[in-house]
Protein: ABC transporter permease subunit
Amino acid sequence: MLRLIQLELQKLWLNRASRVLIIISFILPFTVLILSSIKINFFGFFTLELGELGIFNFPIIWHITTFFAAQFKFFFAIVVVSMIGNEYSNKTLKQNLIDGLSKKEFILSKFYTIVFFSLCATILIGLATFTIGMYYSSYTEANIIFRESEFLLAYFVKLVGFFSLCLFLGMLVKRSAFALGFLFILYILEWIIFGLVSWQADSLDIAFNVKQFFPLESMWNLINQPMQRVVMTKFPDKTDIMYDYAVHWYEVAIVLGWTAIFIFSSYRILKKRDL
Structure:
């Protein structure tokens, strides 16, 4: 496993564009550190400091930071599809197979790299969240500090699932730009199917129950938007905006299932393709 990861890291680091995108994908999520220190002066009347609003209190901070950081996953998604595109355009895929790397090892090397970068991103976001929380939070009890830290697991699974989808699309079309375009097409397709199910079943509830099993929707459901939850902390009497924001095991299982499908499908494509 380590040999395969080292092989991929060497390829990525020698490519200038990939190197820049990797650095950006790790740096941008840390803008949450900057946000936590922002002070906005409203014409001298009062100063709004985000850190004093309570949004960086434990345990809600785990929800907010992981949701915010997940929005920057597209930068590394470009790296993932480029890994495949460059293999075909530079003929390194064929050369690797000639040098003794099996097709299974080739796909595993990509998957291990995805897991490696997702794990690194999760650890860094976890450390950043813990640091901000310890500085701003009024709660210092261990049971409160680490409550809802399962959002880190959801963040990790979300990254692995999304990048595995990008790997599959890269293998399918062999071109980075087309692979990223297919992401948008898949997003539109999910909404079209949702509309058709809603029309046929004449029920939004049934349509939403079906939609939660779609690839992109299932990844989104892992970490729901925290905005309503922030409002709920300030206005607890607003029961009409209450919603289920927790991380559920079946949501994790759905994304892991899609991850397995994407990796296996990538291998099947490569195995059957004439290089």
User: Anything to note?
Assistant: The radius of gyration is 21 Å. Strands lie at 39-42, 46-49. The chain has a mean pLDDT of 83. The first helix runs from residue 2 to 14.
